[in-house]
Amino acid sequence: MIRGKEVRLVGEKGEQLGVMPLYQAREVAERFSLDLVEVAPTAVPPVCRLMDYGKFKYTQTKKEREARKGQKMSLLREIRLRPKIGEHDFDAKARTARKLLGEGDKVKVTIMFRGRENTHPELGLKLIERMKETMKDISVLEKEPTREGARLHVILAPQAPKNKPTEITKAEIAEEEVGILQDAKA
């Protein structure tokens, strides 16, 4: 599918093989049992590379798979509360939220109002403040409290991990022991 009459040919290891007619570049590729792949079609003349295309596609998919493996999907999990929630029930919901935040998920705290509770949104705000205060050591406020109909929402996100102290290896411990023994002999 290469359209140019002349192409700039690049070898398998990246070395420049020069500008040559397309038929000659195809012959070179056939001689080395490689594929001729156009890498820069807009250049003048177009740039083509000698490579094993099947091997190239395989390594690309392998790299993409490795990149996806390292990613963590951050989910938005919801915890629903009522304004007249009991003390023990609140503590249980707070433990659940703490567990979810510890796993790296965001937590949406929703206060649901019913009937006459809608006239007292300050009760919901107090409950949200209490939840924020309970979670302040492991979370940050991502979104301020917002009211949507008969619900009040706030989103808490896990805090960025702090730098963990480096672990001492066995070799470092052995070096320290040698140093202590040498000091004791002196």
List keywords for this structure.
28% strand, alpha/beta, 186 residues, four-stranded mixed beta sheet, 40% helix, 5 helices
Briefly, what is this?
The chain has 186 residues and is of the alpha/beta class. 40% of the residues lie in helices and 28% in strands. 12% of the residues are buried.
Outline the structure in words.
- It is a single chain.
- The protein is α/β, with parallel strands linked by helices and 186 residues long.
- It has five helices and eight strands.
- The strands form two sheets. The chain has a four-stranded mixed sheet with strand order 2-1-4-3.
- The N and C termini lie far apart (79 Å).
- The model has no long low-confidence stretch (mean pLDDT 84).
Computed CA radius of gyration, to the nearest angstrom? 32 Å
Give the biggest beta sheet: 4 strands, mixed
The pLDDT mean sits at 84
The structure class reads alpha/beta
Beta-strand residue percentage: 25-35%
Order of helices and strands: EEHEEHEHEHEEH
In helices, the fraction of residues equals 40-55%
Number-wise, the strands total: 8
The low-confidence parts are none
Number of helices, where a helix is a run of at least 4 consecutive DSSP H or I residues: 5
How would you name the oligomeric state of the polypeptide chains in this document?
single chain
Placed side by side, the strands forming the largest sheet appear as 2-1-4-3
State the shape.
elongated
Alpha-carbon distance between the termini? Answer: 79 Å
